Each structure stands twice: as structure tokens, then as C-alpha cells.
Give the backbone structure.
Amino acid sequence: MTDIMDGIDILISEVGPRDGLQSVDSIMPTDAKKAWIKAEADAGVREIEVGSFVPPKLLPQLADTGEIVEYARTIPGLQVAALVPNFKGAENAIKAGAHKITLPLSVSETHSQANLRKTHAQVLEEVEKIVALIKTIPEGDKPHFEGGLSTAFGCTLEGHVSQSKVIEMAEKLVALGCDEVGLADTTGYANPVQVKELVIGIWAAVGRDKLTGIHLHNTRGQGLANVMAALDVGLDTLDSSLGGIGGCPFAPGASGNIITEDLVFLLDSMGLKTGIDLEKLLAVRSTLAEAIPKEALYGFTPDAGLPKGYVQMVNGGAGWGRGD
Amino acid sequence: MTDIMDGIDILISEVGPRDGLQSVDSIMPTDAKKAWIKAEADAGVREIEVGSFVPPKLLPQLADTGEIVEYARTIPGLQVAALVPNFKGAENAIKAGAHKITLPLSVSETHSQANLRKTHAQVLEEVEKIVALIKTIPEGDKPHFEGGLSTAFGCTLEGHVSQSKVIEMAEKLVALGCDEVGLADTTGYANPVQVKELVIGIWAAVGRDKLTGIHLHNTRGQGLANVMAALDVGLDTLDSSLGGIGGCPFAPGASGNIITEDLVFLLDSMGLKTGIDLEKLLAVRSTLAEAIPKEALYGFTPDAGLPKGYVQMVNGGAGWGRGD
């Protein structure tokens, strides 16, 4: 696989099929998931978190994740990511062929026990076993292993989460052998100053190459303001969800990923290349609406439409209204 | 009146009673408007655009603007702003006692003709007459006169609006004697790069003290991302609307001021002082909901509530989750 950043400035990692679908009641048929993933990849999305290897009893919406990973692997150029709650999940993800696996560690230990039913020590044990498993895989076939720092900006159960605790957990994950850590505002508590401070703090502790992405929610309408901070500090990978569906079912009141459509419009209008064709992306919404008709789809840009005369970068535009 | 910026970093100018009410069908009773303005001032809002001196035939929702300005003037410490479409409106605003009057000039001439029914030359003539009128007023009683640059980031009728045209109009307004110009994203077309470029361009042309504020819409969900750019470049006055009501009835599809509640949360969480008590501000929504029950109120922070354990700056907080 060529470098996923070739020709783009910012990688958008679509998490709707995982974070979106896990938080809605509707179960999307497997074929519809495949069509959704294919359509987003066709629109230029290069990374999709297609599911989570949790027990089907807990999240029946994602019971077909193995099949979805296998299918997504057949789409050329697509980086296939999956969430894994533990070693068992990682085994299954690797078996199915995921390019990237993320194990979430809730920095708030209360949330960790509610969400993963594990203490920090227990989660770190799983990390250790996963790293050992990956060591047995031949170079070239190894998945990229990310330790996700959930509730990094605050927790609906514990409230304040200290930056030093987040940095300590980042250090532990890297020391155990994670290729990378990810920052997640699981609860929609983040503000732009905090985003910058935390990224810089983690970089200072574990190195800049060990943190490139952030998972933001729009729970309090601050999603794209936080994206600005992420861009400003120099992150280049942003999670978002088509139609803004999703959130965390285990953190009460913490719904709402940032909306892929509005994020792509933001970046494109600023002259940052994402490789995504916004018109094609907007068209994917109908796939989603047909497959889960009972679920609300969000998005300001889809509602308002593109500005009159707007030309996307993929079609030769160079940002909107600049330098003239 | 003491300096309006004393003890705060950012001035929030509430425009709901003008930009909000002008774009909804409901007519808010005069007493409800007074209660709304009083309650926002009590929550710490220091500037409110309370109405527009347009003919009541055009905007019956704002027919009581004269009475509202007179009432708002009795609230200690509140800067009372009003929109004026022409010389006649400015005369009435000054008679009623407005501290600040804003005459909007649509940089898109097509929009100017649709919105104000005037060419640029005709608008500038009105500006000249208003400046002459203000010259006759004794020092200390003179209102602050702002020329508002509408459709500065693009127009729903013309599409692209060039930065050089915006700067040219800013120069003309200042040359004629406006105390200041204001930037307005009437159509929700702005992006953060454009915000920075345009502010810097106008500053270079007319001086930094001649542009301090921006009026942003959230039509495409980019409102707070654009606020980040405004803060970054150094603007210190931001327009917003409680409950996000409002927009421009003459620019099709261009609805939606940024939401005061979400904006205050953003600034407060970043450690920027606004002087506004967010809990009190959130309580004002019920006044609005009771007075215009048919109109939708927006706001993510009001829906989600403040983060667990969050302490506002006015109550001794220092931003959320920082430096620890």
C-alpha cells in the first residue's frame, strides 16, 4: 500500500460504521454497510473504521464486523481500521485482515470499568498480549496498533481528567509497544486550548510520531473549533462520522461525532487537501438514510448546500475566496 | 460609561433581538423583548443590538425599536446598538439614544439592491449624511458609527465576492467618516483562512483600530471554527444570537447566527473572559421560548449541559482541564 498521506494534507478517518452504528438502535444490514463503505471510498475517503470486535451480545449492530473487514480489504487504497476491546477482539481483527486496530483505554478509570469492564492494569495487560501477538506476524502483514486515549478531555462520570494522567497513560501504551496513541474526546468536553496543550504534552513525553490523530465529538457544538486547534498544533488525522451519527452509548449525554460533510467542507474551503469529493460524499447520505431510515442524520453543509460558485479542490478549486 | 472592555477579553454582542427577530414570523411583544434584554444584561452581556430602524411595513417584528432602545438605555453598563438602513433610520436611532449604530453595506451590489434597495453609491451617500449629522452632536453624546460590510465572504446571489472589493468598500466607509467597519458573513460562506486574510487586508488598508468585530453565521456549521480564526488574528468583538435564532431574510438559505450559549462556553472553557455567567444565560432561553413558542431554539451546550464539575470563570474557574 502506498503512503496513505500521498497527495493529501489531512487524512479523514470515517468512523460512522463503528462509532455511528454502535450508538443507534437500528441494525444496518451487512450489504448496506458494504455499499456505504464502498461509496465513501469511491468519494475519496482513505481510512474507514468499519466496525468493532466486541461480543455480538453487547453490540448486535456490529456482529458482522469480521465479514465487513474482509470485504473492505478488497477495496483498493482503503485503509481498514477496526476497534478491539481486548486481546480476543484483536485476534479476530487480525484474522479478518484489519490494517489498523485501536484498543481504547479510558483515562478515567471509572469510565474504563463502565465501558470495557476493566481496570487500567487489566487493559494494559491486554495491550501487552496484543503486542506479543503482533510480534509473531511477518513484517508487512503486521497491523498498525493504536492505543486510544478515551475520555482524555474529561469524563461524564468522573468529571475533570488531569492532563498528567493522560500523558502517563500515553507513556505506558507506547512503552508496551503501541505504534501510536490516539486522543479521543469521548464525552464532548474538549476545548481548543486543552487540545493544543494535551497534544504538545504527549509529544513531549512520547515523541511527535506517536500521536497524529484526534477523535472529536460535537456534543457542545465545539467540534470544528477543536479541529482548528488540532490543525494549528499540527495533527493530520481527524475522525468524523457521516451524517454525524454516533457517540458513546456508555457515556450518558455524550453523543455526536463531528460531521464528515461539514469537516470536509471546512478543510476544502481552507485549501487543505483531503482527496475527498464533497459532492460524491454528500450523495452517500442517501445510502445511509435508506439503510437506517429511523435514525436522524445531521449536517449543516448538506442542509445548506455548497456556496454558489464553489469549486472543490478535487475539481481544481483552491479554497474559497482567498487571496484575491 | 466606563470602557466596555474593562475586565474582559472578548466582547460578545448579542444580536438576537435584531438579527434573530427580523428573520422569524413571530412578533415578540415589546414587554418580552425588554425582559429578554434585561435578563441578558443581568447575565453579563455588555452589548446588545436591540433592533433595526427599518420601516415597520418591511419588518413589523421590529416596529417597536425606538421604544426598545429607550428602555435598553436605562440598563446600567449596557451598550445599546441598533441597525439603521439609511439616514432616516440613523436620525431615529440617535433620537432614541442608541450608543452605536450600524449601517450595513452589502459588498455584493446585487445583494445591496435586494436587501437595501440601493446601489453602493446610494448607500455611501447615506453614510455621508449620517456622518454630517453626527458632527452636529456634542462630544460625549455622539453615537459610535459602524459601517457593516455585509456579504463580505460571498453572496448567495453573486457567489464569489473578491477580497479587494471588500477592502475597497472598507476604505470608502472609513474615508467618509465611519468610526469603524464590521465584517459580516451574511451568507454563511466564510472559512477560517478567509477570515484571517480579510481582517489582515482591511487592517493594512484602514488601520487596526478601524476593525475589531465580526458577525458570523453557522449556516454550514463553520461558525465556531471561524471564531477561532477571528480570535487567532486578534479580533475582540463577536456577534451571536441567543438560541441561534436569526439570519438574513433577503439572502435565501442564509439562516443561522452563531449561538451565544455555545460561543460563551467556547470562550469560557478556553480561559477567555467574557463577563457572562453561562448558567444565567442558559436560563434566559425560557424567556425566549415563552415569548415566541413557535420558533425553534438551537444550541448544543444547552442541550448537553455543562461538563460535570465545570466551573465558569465568573465563578472562579480558569478554563477547563488546562495546565494540570
Notes: The CA atoms of residues 109 and 119 of chain B lie 6 Å apart. Residues 120-135 of chain B form the longest helix (16 residues). Chain B is about 40% helix and 15% strand.
